[in-house]
Specification:
mainly alpha; 0% strand
């Protein structure tokens, strides 16, 4: 029978425990390094995704800015046309008022001018109506363009 001292048994048990602890520590270090590597990869992927998103956002913003500027220019052109047509309407309205006044004052003296003045008044009235209709159409188009500009702004703001 082999006699083993209790100190020897204790040392062997300690060595086994140290081996077990070393293996556990080694596994922990390995898992920690794996987690750090995985985390670094995720961070790189996130940064790449941010860069791609930022580039795409910039392209979209530039596109919307160009589109917005085009819509503004189109709207400004329509507003200028509408303003010009309103001026023409005012001018034609004042001309119509003048013709009507002259017609009434000359009616007693000139019976043969009745027909000519009536024809001119009708033409001016039709022209005014035509310009009013065109003015309304231009105003509606301007409102629609303003609506489109507002939608574009909202889209840009929501994407920002």
């Amino acid at each position: 029978m082999v006699f083993v001292s209790p100190a020897r048994v204790s040392r062997v048990a300690e060595q086994k425990e140290l081996l077990t602890l070393n293996k556990r520590l080694e596994n922990y270090i390995y898992q920690n390094r794996e987690a750090e590597a995985s985390q670094a990869l995720v961070k790189r992927q996130q940064q790449q995704q941010r860069n791609r998103f930022s580039a795409e956002f910039s392209r979209q913003k530039e596109r919307y800015d160009r589109e917005l500027e085009a819509r503004r220019q189109e709207r400004d052109g329509l507003v200028a046309r509408c303003s010009k047509q309103r001026t023409e309407i005012d001018l034609l309205s004042s001309q119509l008022a003048e013709v009507t006044k002259n017609f009434e004052s000359e009616q007693a003296r000139r019976s043969d001018l009745d027909e000519q003045l009536e024809e001119r008044a009708d033409r001016l009235g039709k022209e005014i109506e035509r310009l009013k209709v065109e003015g309304r159409h231009a105003s509606l188009r301007a409102d629609k363009l303003q609506h489109n500009v507002d939608q574009s702004k909202t889209t840009i703001q929501t994407r920002a």
